[in-house]
Design a protein that fits this description.
By secondary structure, the protein is α/β, with parallel strands linked by helices. It has a single domain, classed as NAD(P)-binding Rossmann-like Domain (Rossmann fold). The protein has eight helices and seven strands, in the order βαβαβαβαβαβαααβ. It has helices spanning about 15-25, 40-45, 65-80, 105-135, 155-175, 195-200, 205-215, 220-230, and strands at about 5-10, 30-35, 55-60, 85-90, 140-145, 180-190, 240-245. Strands 3-2-1-4-5-6-7 form a seven-stranded parallel sheet, with helices on both faces. The longest helix has 29 residues, at about 105-135. The protein binds NADP nicotinamide-adenine-dinucleotide phosphate. It holds the Pfam family adh_short. It comes from Paraburkholderia caribensis. Keywords: Oxidoreductase. This is SDR family oxidoreductase. Belongs to the short-chain dehydrogenases/reductases (SDR) family.
């Protein structure tokens, strides 16, 4: 079932967001992607520009207060309509514990994973709210949380803390929006092989060892399939929380 003609993806320049953007186009939807790497956004939009534009994008930091609004506005400008699904993929990791992680990264982590997400959630709720009251079409807000936002991790508690907080906000917004034709969904992936690990400063030798013990790890497309499963349910059905891990991942 195709519920969404236009899908917005915050953090669409790599990993899960990028894979989702590609599959959305393959499935016949149009997409609006965001991220800081303008070269990637421009190249993606260029690839899908003819015969009619199927992709547009916004170069922006996800913690900017106008991030989500710019995405909606760009969609209106390019497609003459706004998205009915917003998938919040923008986020980053940080390796280490309270005592071992790089303290100079803490503020940026909180700014993107938490404050930025809060601002995007509010903007989406505001944008979806007026039309959701009258329309029979369902709206979707899908947020990528994490397994370490559900199960306390000895290895990754600082990043995990941002996801614990995010999970709480997502469930709260789900309750608030449930009467307004808007489904708010949490996806909680375990290990997914993307740029996430190198950008979070993981020890890649250790990561490969872990994959030998507990892998194969997920590919971005595995998570994307779970997202589509949510987006394509009939409007009266809401799968509101999916935890998806590699079969051999222990915690
Ligand atoms: N990979 C995993 O094992 C894993 C597991 C559980 C949850 N997750 C979550 O899944 C989500 C996507 O991660 P991924 O694995 O796909 O990693 P990724 O390949 O590194 O992608 C992260 C995306 O977020 C964007 N982003 C990061 N910081 C941003 C900022 N300040 N402003 C705007 N965009 C920003 C990046 O775009 P730019 O750099 O171009 O800005 C990129 O598009 C994240 O929320 C992550 O926490 C990942």
């Amino acid at each position: 079932m195709k519920n969404h003609d236009i899908v917005a993806i915050s953090g669409g320049t790599s990993g899960i967001g990028r894979s989702l953007a590609e599959s959305a186009i393959e499935r016949g939807s149009r997409v609006v992607v965001s991220g800081r790497r303008g070269d990637r956004i421009h190249a993606f939009c260029e690839t899908h520009s003819t015969p009619v534009p199927r992709a547009c994008g916004v170069v922006s930091d996800a913690s900017d207060s106008d991030h989500a609004n710019r995405i909606f506005d760009e969609s209106q400008r390019t497609f003459g309509a706004t998205p009915t699904a917003y998938v919040l993929c923008a986020g980053r990791g940080l390796s280490g514990t309270i005592t071992t992680s790089d303290e100079t990264q803490w503020e940026e982590l909180l700014r993107v994973n938490l404050l930025g997400a809060m601002r995007q959630l509010r903007a989406c709720a505001e944008r979806f709210n007026p039309s959701a009251k009258t329309s029979t079409q369902v709206r979707d807000i899908v947020v990528i949380g994490s397994t370490v936002g559900r199960v306390i991790s000895a290895a990754n508690p600082v990043y995990g803390a941002t996801k614990f907080a995010l999970h709480s906000l997502v469930e709260s917004l789900r309750q608030e929006m449930s009467s307004r034709n808007t489904r708010v969904t949490l996806i909680e992936p375990g290990f997914v092989k993307t740029e996430f690990q190198t950008r979070a400063g993981y020890d890649m030798e250790r990561f490969s060892q872990m994959e030998q013990e507990q892998g194969p790890f997920l590919a971005a497309v595995d998570v994307v399939e779970a997202i589509w499963f949510v987006l394509e349910r009939p409007p009266h059905v809401h799968i509101d929380d999916i935890r998806i891990r590699p079969t051999r991942q222990r915690v």
